[in-house]
UniProtKB/TrEMBL annotation:
InterPro entries: Dgk1-like. This is Phytol kinase. The chain crosses the membrane at residues 16-34, 62-80, 101-118, 124-145, 166-193, 205-224. Signal peptide: none annotated. The keyword Ribosomal protein does not apply. Keywords: Kinase, Membrane, Transferase, Transmembrane, Transmembrane helix. GO terms for molecular function: ATP-dependent diacylglycerol kinase activity. The keyword Protein biosynthesis does not apply. It comes from Methanosarcina barkeri 227.
Length: 225
């Protein structure tokens, strides 16, 4: 009878785990995953940036980006200064962005910078690396990252899994657009290093600028060899 009682108790605990705890965990994970994908998906507009640049030229895409920047600056002014919740967009802000500008503003500034200063191919690669490399690092690092090896160096909890996935994605983007493994390697390394090292500076601005700058320098140097 005691064994039977223990078995029933064990079955009850298993049922509770299966029917209450596990679904709750999956719900939390799925909602967190959905939020991260949704927040990062805004940056997928980088594909549209590349298409407009390719089809209509440099001046057109710069005007489009400036218009976008002005609009989001106005919206963020009302959000930050007056606490007005912008419909739909408010769910995509992190807690740290409640009282400061959102990442989309720095992303626009980064895109404007690299398009203005660097060659078309370098600009394409830098913008797409800032988007898809960051997306890979965020999702892989958040949900699969286990080795937090940067705590002593960069004072953060970013994982080696996230950084490696970002580097691989960035390198493949470079090869696809530039076709030059050396320039692609330099840009992928700088993009990954910058994204991993920064904590308080918005990586939407600094990653494309650093990757684009050193990519352009490397390309110009190789052209003279």
């Amino acid at each position: 009878m005691k064994c039977s009682g223990r078995a029933e108790q064990s079955n009850t605990e298993t049922d509770i785990t299966l029917y209450y705890i596990l679904p709750s965990l999956f719900a939390m994970l799925s909602s967190e995953f959905f939020f991260e994908v949704l927040r990062k998906s805004v940056h997928l507009v980088s594909i549209l940036i590349v298409l407009i640049y390719e089809l209509y030229g440099k001046e057109t895409i710069l005007w489009v980006l400036m218009l976008f920047l002005v609009v989001v600056l106005v919206l963020d002014y009302f959000r930050v200064e007056h606490g007005i919740r912008i419909p739909f967009f408010h769910i995509m802000y992190r807690k740290s962005e409640v009282d400061r500008f959102g990442g989309h503003i720095f992303f626009a500034l980064g895109a404007i910078s690299v398009i203005s200063l660097f060659s078309r191919e370098i600009a394409y690669a830098a913008i797409l690396m800032a988007t898809f490399g960051d997306l890979a690092a965020a999702l892989i690092g958040k949900f699969y990252g286990k080795r937090r090896v940067f705590q002593k160096i960069f004072k953060n909890d970013k994982s080696i899994e996230g950084s490696v996935s970002e580097f691989v994605i960035d390198f493949l983007i470079g090869l696809l657009i530039l076709g030059n493994p050396i320039v692609s390697l330099v840009m992928a390394f700088l993009a990954t290093l910058t994204e991993t090292a920064v904590n308080k500076i918005d990586d939407n601005l600094i990653v494309p600028v650093f990757a684009g700058f050193f990519g352009q320098i490397t390309m110009n140097f190789l052209a003279y060899l």
